[in-house]
Amino acid sequence: MAKQFDVVVIGAGPGGYVAAIRAAQLGQTVAIVDAWQNAKGGPAPGGTCTNVGCIPSKALLQSSEHVEQAQHHFADHGISVGDVSVDLAKMVGRKATVVKQNNDGILFLFKKNKITFFHGLASFTAQVEGGWGIKVDGAAPEELVAKHVIVATGSNARALPGAAFDEKVILSNDGALNLSEVPKRLGVIGAGVIGLELGSVWRRLGAEVTILEALPAFLAAVDEQVAKEAQKQLTKQGLKINLGVKIGEIKPSESSVTVDYTDAAGAAQSATFDRLIVSIGRVPNTNGLGADTVGLKLDERGFIAVDEDNKTNLPNVWAVGDVVRGPMLAHKAEEEGVAVAERIVGQHGHVNFNTVPWVIYTSPEIAWVGQTEQALKASGRAYKAGNFPFLANGRARALGDTTGFVKVLADATTDEILGVHIIGPQASELIAEAVVAMEFRASSEDIGRICHAHPSLSESMKEAALAVEKRSLNF
């Protein structure tokens, strides 16, 4: 006998589990199905983000940053530690503990909100009386019927043609987070968020890191001024960044991998690495979903086709997160999940893609929201820009980290904030103020007239806003 629910969510990543919680809060009977499992075969909800993405990478970034500070910066504070050694197994073990804490926290939230969790792979079977038939394949197979289905199956790492991930020498983000030793020579194909973050982790721990990027510009989607500063700082730290590269043959062996490529000048090159991280983007995950069985439409790139409300072509079937159009960001997935849960009960859930923040957790951190200066120039929109360097911020000096700046872009006539770009300490936290301001269509003057605590890094946001009208107080 099939079990009936108002809402069945397929996938317990950020979009899925948040959608399930919001639907339960709104009085729906909710089930969620997820196939992720931990080393012992138990459930591991949280998707890529919790298991092999956002959470574990930040754990290793934090650990490796401690190593960097101890080796190179503690002495500036009068702290002598002698030789610094790294217990990599313990570091990776701590990362695993952080992941499990998040897994367990999500399972607790399911119980708290009376959400039924099924551990297994879910797939559509047919449209049936009462909604949609869903089959769960796992240790305890189940048949479910849902009035509404929310598909939140996420994405998978994109492999290079002819260079499949073996997670031994050719690594996805998964393998790159679980190395048992620090490679002497590490290659990274792709200078995006994942490549730069993971490259930074292993560079801090002692690897010689070479990044090969196909695009001729570094961080092309980022504000140009920020991108130039980021390239300068990351190169200064020791990352070898090669742009305009065309990858040729990749030849793995038992203990190394050789990459043939053409450099920006058109010269043939070859490099051998102990390990190679391939981070060239991600592809939507619809494997085993049964999309063909029920006629769920995919677009030309393999994403589930949805409208502006995240409705698919099938009645009462919705999709959110990485498996649909838009930025592949956990927080974007969460917002879509909440919006869909609210739409299901007749409310008017909304996601503003113009105020979705982006963050790269390198050191210095990079964060931005809204339009870049080059985009404003290309569109012909008249704007004003205000910059404030962390070098002139008292809190940054006390921290010993004065790298970077805050940049505010505002409409030349109305002063409405159009974009904010930050490179520097705790940029990931500072960007939230800009998101709130833009969501309420604030002007740069609004931020400039708000009292900020002193001394704080947030004063740099105020100063950059004041600088739009060339009236910064401390620079």
Describe the protein's architecture and organization.
The protein starts with a strand and ends in an 8-residue tail after the last helix. The chain has three domains: 3-157 and 283-351, FAD/NAD(P)-binding domain; 170-279, 3-Layer(bba) Sandwich (FAD/NAD(P)-binding domain), CATH 3.50.50; 355-467, FAD/NAD-linked reductase, C-terminal dimerisation domain (Enolase-like, domain 1, 2-Layer Sandwich), CATH 3.30.390.30. Strands 1, 2, 3, 4, 5, 6 and 17 form a seven-stranded mixed beta sheet that branches. A five-stranded parallel beta sheet has the order 8-15-9-10-11. It has a five-stranded antiparallel beta sheet with strand order 18-19-22-21-20, sandwiched between helices. Helix 1 (14-25) runs parallel beside helix 9 (330-344), helix 3 (54-72) packs antiparallel against helix 4 (88-112) and helix 3 packs parallel to helix 6. The longest helix is centred in the first third of the chain and has 25 residues, at 88-112. 45% of the residues are buried. The protein has helices spanning 14-25, 47-52, 54-72, 88-112, 173-176, 193-204, 224-237, 291-294, 330-344, 373-379, 394-399, 427-439, 444-448, 459-467, and strands at 3-10, 30-34, 116-119, 121-128, 131-137, 142-151, 155-157, 170-171, 185-189, 208-212, 240-242, 246-252, 257-262, 268-273, 275-278, 282-284, 317-319, 358-360, 365-370, 383-389, 405-411, 417-424. The protein is of the alpha/beta class.
Structural class category? alpha/beta
Q: How many separate structural domains? A: 3
Strand content: 25-35%
Taking the alpha carbons of the first and last residues, their distance comes to 71 Å
What do we call the CATH homologous superfamily of the largest domain? Answer: FAD/NAD(P)-binding domain
CATH architecture of the largest domain: 3-Layer(bba) Sandwich
The helix tally amounts to: 14
The number of strands is: 22
What general outline do the C-alpha atoms trace?
A: globular
CATH class of the largest domain: Alpha Beta
Query: The biggest beta sheet, please?
Result: 7 strands, mixed
- The share of residues in helices is 25-40%
CATH fold assignment of the largest domain: FAD/NAD(P)-binding domain
- Integer average pLDDT: 97
Q: Residue ranges: pLDDT <50 for 5 or more in a row?
A: none
What value does the Rg take, in angstroms? 24 Å
